[in-house]
Task: structure prediction
Amino acid sequence: MDARRPLMAGNWKMFKTHTEAVATASELLHLVSGVTDRDIMLAPTYSALVPVGEALQNSNISLGAQNLFWESDGAFTGEIAPGMLKAAGCEYVIIGHSERRQYFGETDGTVNKRIRAAIEADLRPVLCIGETETQRDADETFSVLDKQIQNGLQNFALADLNHLVVAYEPVWAIGTGKTASTDQAQEAHQHIRSLLEKAFGQDLAHRTRILYGGSVKPDNVDELMQMPDLDGALVGGASLKADSFGRIVQFQT
Ligand code: PGA
Result:
């Protein structure tokens, strides 16, 4: 069985000016320059993409964006096109983050359009899914994940999804300091992999990286990454400081 190469991704949300972002990215570069056995990605705000991309050029850290619009250009005030992200040096794009779903009206339908647009622009989509606390308490976790995967990936052909990354982020664990237990995370990841298998076959399910997100920190990452179906992490708060994210990237199992 081919091991999935871990992906350690930092989601900087709406933090850091472009100057601050370049400074943290440069600091991180020094800390992780020797890392060759895992992929690393940083997703700063739009205004920082180009300068951070320049700072990361020819390095082992890839650039990612936090969202995109599905049209290639046009009168869409405030939006950003896939081709613009590609031109800025992005390799990845986060799609359907729970904060987009919660505050900006993102639905599985719009997630689906954004994933298609990302794939067409040769960007690697990082599809974020996860249940709220109320849904978990009502035993709806699996049904929520089923719906998010089915609708988010509706009408895709197997060949479209070669570079798909999924991020399982229980909403109750994001920015709260409450992390899913290793067993809770593993159970959800295994379920997501089984959904991918049902929809797209064993090979794709096997190859697709499923990241865990939600209060990942230097002191819990080692334990989480021991679980067989956790293939990396999507890190918010603890990715904002280079030393903390540098440690997370270099997790030990
Ligand atoms: P957190 O955020 O690490 O601050 O919980 C994770 C995320 O929202 O991707």
User: Anything to note?
Assistant: The two ends are 18 Å apart (CA to CA).
